[in-house]
Amino acid sequence: MDSSFAFKLSILITLVISVLLITINLYAVEIKQGWILFTNGPDINSIINYPAKIVVIDYSADGTDKKAFSSAEINLLKSTGKKVFSYINFAIAEDWRFYWNKLPKSIILGNLEGWTGEYYVKYWYAEWYSIIKEYMTKISNANFDGVVLDWINVYTHENLQKLSGKTQENLKLAIVENIRKIVSEFPKMEYVLINGEDILIEFPDLKKSIKYVLVESLFFTNTKLKLSTKYYTERLSKLLKLRNDGVEILSVEYIDNGNPLDKTNSERIKTYVELATKYGFIYYVARTDMKLNILNIPRVIN
């Protein structure tokens, strides 16, 4: 390629980018997130000054014990007025975690469909609960305010029911038993249940210790509104009941394609913020790829 042509091309690209940035600044505005959900490779420096009071991250910068956050790092986040929660997979094993090599293979049931490196386990076994206790101790020692428990609704999976030979009811009771035990053994921690509204409705005594539900994809499915569905109306009713009982609802929707000049994307984000605000839910607008590997700052057409 001729050097003069390459130079002219680079100048043109720079101009196009500059014009695009000016256009974005003129016509797009930032939507302030209500809370932060950054669990895949969380970067404390990128979130420390963001004005959100609730932060959910992993206990580690890359998911491994080697890069686990120190209490000094978590205290630095908390010093800005943030309440900091650590994510923990409560009923599914992950093959990159500190416990994988010592996890008895006899309690692994099979692959969790759609999630590479994640496995159904016999979470009702003492061996798994002992792993969870060790996990919780690490999180507690790092001075997190609390934990976010994921896959507590795995008991609804037909594949798990087949692999384990257990009924949905028995699997649910086993999850609830583990929740009760962990809350009892770590009473100073705060607890968030991911998609855990059904458990809190059925076992209302848990609300004494569990003050948050993190709800995914309530309003949208694959970026499409689903307000007319029976599933939505029934789920919303449960969440509003919990909200009235003093349980905070942390909502996340995976709806932002990252293009601030996309009118459809902008309207989708605005609709979500309006709905979440209407019902008193704290919102987080996440990217459509569901990777949760950045602090997403949504921008919409003004």
From TrEMBL:
Q: Which SUPFAM superfamilies match?
A: (Trans)glycosidases
Q: Which InterPro entries match?
A: Aldolase_TIM, GH, GH114_TIM-barrel, TM1410-rel
Q: Where are the transmembrane segments?
A: 6-28
**Presence of keyword Transmembrane helix:** yes
Boundaries of every Glycoside-hydrolase family GH114 TIM-barrel domain copy = 52-288
Recite the UniProt keywords alphabetically.
Membrane, Transmembrane, Transmembrane helix
Pfam families from the UniProt entry: Glyco_hydro_114
Q: Which PANTHER family match?
A: PELA
User: What is the designated name of this protein?
Assistant: Glycoside-hydrolase family GH114 TIM-barrel domain-containing protein
